Amino acid sequence: MTNREDVRPAGIPVARRWATGAAALYVLWGLLHMGLGVSMVISALADGVPGAELAAESLLFFVCVTVLGGQAIFVALTMNRVNSRAGYWINVVVLGIVDVAFLLLLVLPGHVDLVGGTAGPVIWLLASGCATVALLREPGRAV
After folding, report:
1. CA angle in degrees (0–180, nearest 5) for 117-120-126
2. How many Cα neighbours within 13 Å face the side chain of 111?
3. Cβ-based burial of 83 (10 A; exposed 0-12, middle 13-18, buried ≥19)
4. Torsion of CA 130, 23, 62, 110, to 10 degrees
5. Fewer CB near the last or first residue (10 Å), C or N of the chain?
6. Contact indicator for 81, 19 with CB cutoff of 8 Å
7. How far apart are alpha carbons 82 and 88 in whole angstroms?
8. What does each C-alpha distance from 37 to 23, 27, 83, 102 come to in angstroms?
9. CB under 8 Å, gap of 24 or more: what pairs does 88-93 form?
10. Mean pLDDT for the stretch of residues 61-66
11. Which secondary-structure segment (H or E) carries 17?
12. Do residues 28 and 82 touch, judged by C-beta distance below 8 A?
């Protein structure tokens, strides 16, 4: 039996609405990172495989950014959307580590502008907040 406050007028459980919001935000995070990563990889490979070590490391970084964006989307659509506890922890922890490291190593020292550099972490924070509420609102489930 569901509590009246656990169901919206349309009959959709509140936890499901929060989980859907979290999944949508994680997909947005993933698209942002995949788009940036793919564009930087294409740009880096325009003149062929980089010969310098720093250029190769930069290329590898953007390949990883692209893969993490894809992982975020996959987990969002297959796990966060259905309010999976495992999906919650995967995207909260993995993407959180990536965003915190990005802020500390690239944004705060000024290598990336503040506005552009905080977009991803803000989206992650909102998605993680929605996912947390979704799990807490799920009857009989805790984070």
Report:
1. 130
2. 8
3. buried
4. -20
5. N
6. yes
7. 10
8. 21, 15, 28, 14
9. 88/131, 88/132, 88/135, 88/143, 91/26, 91/127, 91/128, 91/131, 92/128, 92/131, 92/132
10. 96
11. helix 14-45
12. no
Token readout for 110 is: 């000024």
Confidence of residue 3 (pLDDT cuts 50, 70, 90): low
3-state secondary structure of 7: strand
What is the spatial distance between Cα 102 and Cα 113, in angstroms, rounded to a whole number? 12
Cα–Cα distance between 73 and 94 in angstroms, integer? 13
Q: Which pLDDT tens digit goes with each residue over 90-125? A: 999 999 999 999 999 999 999 999 999 999 999 999
The pTM assigned to this predicted structure is 0.88
DSSP per-residue letters across 28-93: HHHHHHHHHHHHHHHHHHTTSS--SHHHHHHHHHHHHHHHHHHHHHHHHHHTGGGT-HHHHHHIII
